Amino acid sequence: MSSTMLELVQQTTAELNLSVPSYVIGNPNQDVQQVLALMNRAGYDLIKEHDWQALELEYRFYTTAITTTCDTTVGTQILTAIPSTAGLDNTYSIVGTSIPQDTYVDTVTDGTSLTTTQQSSATSTGETVTFSKTIYPLPPDYETITDNTQWDKTKHWQMLGPVSAQQWQWLKSGYISTGPRVRWRILGNQFEIWPPYSTLEYLGFEYRSKGWARSAADAVKNSFTVDTDTSVLDDAIIVLLTKLKYFQIKSFDTTA
Fold this sequence. Notes:
Layout: H1 5-15, H2 30-49, E1 56-62, E2 65-72, E3 78-80, E4 92-96, E5 99-108, E6 114-116, E7 124-133, E8 135-137, E9 142-145, E10 151-152, E11 157-158, H3 165-173, E12 183-187, E13 190-194, E14 202-209, E15 213-214, E16 220-221, E17 230-231, H4 235-249
């Protein structure tokens, strides 16, 4: 079982011949505060040093699509008479007969209307459209993605990517832009897919987490903030690197 943050700080201060604290968070002792800060810095640095097995995690999610109806007006960017715009935002693309390719929701105006990123190509009433979410948030502890782990688990096909900026624009703007395989890229710290889907797809990939700490409830954290936090990295490495950083910041000899 991993040591708690308090136990790691106690071990570090004892080895440095400092006063050993009975608690860390809220402790006014400057040495305790500095050791905690350096311990967190050790964690931040360690995730950059090596592809730790303990930081390799899976991320899975379902795509989202809403098929509904709306009224369009040629030459305008407004869709009206939508039964409900609840849940829609600018991460949704729009597919419909009067909707040009690569059109997204721009702004939700109210509960039944919204503006789009392109003008409608025709006027229609009660046209069937599909709002397909193609932009998804990365995990909050995301550091880097793991190559060749991106899969469409519904179709049992590997997703293709990361697609270059040039390929991405070709896919979204060219005549041949759809197919059975999911293409993906990371842009603006979000996971984007193409083409838009009207059905649910179960997608997933592996990634390296920056969440080297865990709460007492096993929630992923990016730093120590509570005495009962633990680390998924080796306790001895955390203590040794904290000591090294302490020696460095104090300008002590770090040769050993």
